[in-house]
Write a structure and sequence with these properties.
By secondary structure, the chain is mainly α. It has four domains: 131 residues, Response regulator (Rossmann fold, 3-Layer(aba) Sandwich), CATH 3.40.50.2300; 113 residues, Tetratricopeptide repeat domain (Serine Threonine Protein Phosphatase 5, Tetratricopeptide repeat); 79 residues; 78 residues, Alpha Horseshoe (Serine Threonine Protein Phosphatase 5, Tetratricopeptide repeat). A five-stranded parallel beta sheet has the order 2-1-3-4-5, sandwiched between helices. Helix 7 runs parallel beside helix 9, helix 9 packs antiparallel against helix 10 and helix 20 runs parallel beside helix 22. The chain starts with 14 loop residues before the first strand and ends with a helix.
């Protein structure tokens, strides 16, 4: 008679969190887990209660039902937990559900739980699935610890060491290395890795990674073909849909990009960020009916989402101006104010949209009152608004006859974001909509060139070894251009270079940290941020006070 298989993992030292709105199910799961020798078990009936527990304790395993009754569902809980970094790499998050609708399945898997288990199941099935995931994560833990510390170069080196040993989970290390290379902008190394993997077998993640390499290196047609092939073979590969839409838009094929996002939104309608992207693209294309639908869905999905945003309400209202829904737009904006009662950014969104809606309704006194409110709110927090709201405020100034104020805001916007092609395109579109296309092109070109010349002057000083002069120039530039990524990047670079040569300087370290914080908010692959962070970390460690 065969002996029972000895468990490969000891669960007795693990901490579990069980989340289910039904008390009987929580009790059943607790008994299952206790049979594994687990003694530290917390339970929650709602997502809100679960998040409070996750704030207090790090969990080894989270077992979460998909449908949690009123409030957030399991998908939205996972979404927020990841956004707030309440889940570590080593944490196993398993989604449990009795539902199997395509909408639910697609919504759940888009946020990458570690596993997905359909009810009913027994304790043996649950344990086997947990063991498999935890063993896989254990193998990758050394690499992940380096990633969590920001030591990405060392993490890639560790991946290379593991890959050289040809482990049983070779593909996991190759995939992780590829993702790290993309983050660092090491596109040549990433391409080599993906091609090596694909030479052996057509692996979807490697094809997706190769497409991203093509995109970031300007080979847009090749990227489009790559993503199209993935979608043709598997229409439920949602990440490929998103990358295909992004590539098509970069190629100037906005109509095809919108069609791609619409198809993806039909397949997985609960992805709020995709609905927002669809709404933005439709709004730029003046497909107001599609934009209104997408933002309406985004507002609904955002009710219990960490991505709830006042911009979704105001954009829905802006689209409705053009769809015979002007009075309904006012109701949307009323709800915006109700849902964000103490949020000045929400009030500004509402006032700007109300100005346009009331104007379209011919209610000029109310339109002017909304404009005056917007101006006061904007001035009260001058210099702190996101670029999108600055552009909306500038457009509203010009539409209300305050052309000079609008143009001054545009100048500052261009100077702070002179390399953001997408934003500059929206600026140009705004001028075109106002019948000022030529003036817009001249304004963008002139202010962009001023920043380029300033930055080039600072770079030359660095190349000539005149670091103190370069520091003075860049620090002065930051006073006028606090949100310019290039100026922040080069300021951090020259300060780090100075300290690497002359030693630690606490004032300079503080400035570097502020620059890195700003850059982190707008980080993109290949930006160089990760390398700067590593240089900063080395100085802090080697010159510890």
């Amino acid at each position: 008679m065969a002996l029972p298989r000895k468990p490969r993992l000891d669960f007795s030292d693990k901490r579990f969190l069980i989340i289910d709105d039904f008390g009987d199910m929580r009790s059943m799961l607790r008994h299952m887990v206790e049979s594994y020798g687990v003694t530290r078990i917390d339970t929650a009936a709602t997502a809100k209660e679960a998040l409070r527990l996750m704030e207090r304790h790090p969990y080894d395993v989270v077992l979460c039902d998909y449908n949690l009754g009123e409030g957030q569902d399991g998908q939205q809980l996972l979404e927020e937990a990841k956004h707030r970094r309440l889940i570590q790499f080593a944490t196993v998050f398993m989604m449990l559900t009795a539902e199997n609708t395509m909408q639910m399945v697609m919504g759940a898997v888009e946020y990458y739980p570690d596993d997905y288990l359909s009810k009913p199941f027994n304790k043996h099935t649950l344990r086997q699935r947990l063991e498999k995931i935890m063993l896989r994560k254990q193998d990758l833990l050394a690499v992940d610890k380096l990633v969590q510390k920001g030591e990405l170069e060392q993490a890639i080196e560790e991946c290379d060491r593991r890959i050289a040993r040809k482990p049983r989970n070779l593909r996991e290390f190759q995939k992780l290395k590829g993702e790290l290379c993309l983050r660092l902008g090491r596109y040549e190394a990433a391409e080599m890795l993906y091609r090596e993997v694909l030479a052996e077998r057509s692996v979807p993640w490697a094809r997706l990674g190769l497409g991203q390499v093509y995109f970031h290196t300007g080979r847009l047609e090749a990227a489009r073909d790559c993503f199209q092939e993935i979608v043709a073979e598997n229409q439920h590969h949602m990440e490929a849909h998103d990358w295909l839409a992004r590539t098509l838009e970069a190629l100037g094929e906005a109509e095809a990009a919108q069609a791609c996002l619409e198809q993806a939104a039909r397949l997985s309608p609960k992805a709020i960020q995709r609905q927002m992207a669809l709404g933005d693209l439709a709004l730029r294309r003046k497909d107001f009916a599609c934009a209104a639908r997408a933002f309406k869905k985004a507002v609904k999905l955002g009710e219990h989402s960490v991505y709830k945003s006042p911009a979704n309400y105001s954009k829905q209202a802006q689209a409705m101006i053009h769809t015979s829904g002007k009075k309904d737009a006012l109701r949307v904006l009323k709800k915006l104010r109700q849902d964000f009662p103490h949020d000045d950014e929400a009030r500004l969104h509402a006032a700007l949209a109300e100005n346009a809606v009331y104007d379209a309704l011919g209610r000029q006194d109310e339109s002017r009152a909304a404009y005056d409110e917007a101006c006061k709110l904007f001035e009260a927090h001058a210099g702190q608004w996101p670029a999108e709201l600055v552009l909306e405020m500038s457009k509203t100034h010009i539409a209300n006859g305050d052309e000079n104020r609008g143009k001054e805001l545009i100048k500052g916007l261009v100077r702070n974001h002179h390399e953001d092609e997408a934003l500059l395109q929206r600026v140009q579109e705004a001028f075109s909509d106002l019948g000022m296309a030529e003036e817009g092109r001249a304004l963008i070109s002139d202010n962009r060139n001023k920043v380029v010349q300033l930055n080039n002057q600072g770079v030359r000083l660095v190349q000539e070894g005149r670091l103190e002069e370069a520091i003075s120039l860049f620090e002065e530039a930051l006073q006028d251009l606090p949100a310019n990524k290039t100026i922040n990047m080069n300021t951090a670079m020259v300060l780090l270079k100075y300290m690497e040569k002359h030693g630690r300087h606490d004032g300079y370290l503080g400035q570097v940290r502020r620059c890195l914080d700003m850059l982190r908010e707008h980080a993109s692959p290949g930006s160089g941020l990760e390398q700067l962070q590593e240089r900063y970390n080395r100085i802090v460690k080697s010159h510890a006070a």
